[in-house]
Amino acid sequence: GVIYDPNRDELFQVITGCGAYMNGVQSQASNAQRISEAVVIQEFGSERSAEGIDAMLGATRRLLEAGVQSLRQIGSGVLDLAYVGCGRVDAVYTGVAGEYWHPWDYTAGVLFAEESGAQVRTIEGKSFQVFDKSMLCASSKSLCEDMVNTLTKSG
């Protein structure tokens, strides 16, 4: 897979089993272990129903209450995942309200993140499949578990 960010002139390249590279340098996800150490990207997509907005804002509130270092919105699913893979951010999620990405929005990014050592799951913590309606990518297994517990908590 190949991802290009023209704004930063960065080229992300990945081949299954061969590692992930940004501008020719091998990438490694960060070692953040908890939400309180993490910079997290959240993407809200096009969901605008009252219930969807409540779900998205509820997830944001839970992350803030858990002490997240920072929340970001980049606007590009594939770059979100590449940024987790190169250690620029620690996690990204989508799908708390049914606002999901399409496979063409993220497939190369999932592979890049995984080859960099990141975990890719559903928000419920299940193994991610290409047509799932939610996605969570985190730099470490423990951060992934912390994110699952926080995002699926009611309230």
Characterize the structure shown:
This protein is of the alpha+beta class and 155 residues long. It has a single domain (28-151), classed as 3-Layer(aba) Sandwich (D-Maltodextrin-Binding Protein, domain 2). It has four helices and nine strands, in the order βββββαβαβαββα. The chain has helices spanning 50-65, 77-85, 103-115, 141-151, and strands at 2-5, 10-15, 19-22, 25-26, 39-42, 70-72, 91-94, 119-121, 135-138. The strands form two sheets. The chain has a five-stranded mixed sheet with strand order 6-5-7-9-8, sandwiched between helices. A four-stranded antiparallel sheet has the order 1-2-3-4, with helices on one face. Strand 1 and strand 2 (10-15) form a beta hairpin. Helix 2 packs parallel to helix 3. The radius of gyration is 14 Å and the shape is globular.
Annotate the secondary structure layout.
Elements: E1 2-5, E2 10-15, E3 19-22, E4 25-26, E5 39-42, H1 50-65, E6 70-72, H2 77-85, E7 91-94, H3 103-115, E8 119-121, E9 135-138, H4 141-151
Parallel strand pairs: 5-6, 5-7
Antiparallel strand pairs: 1-2, 2-3, 3-4, 7-9, 8-9
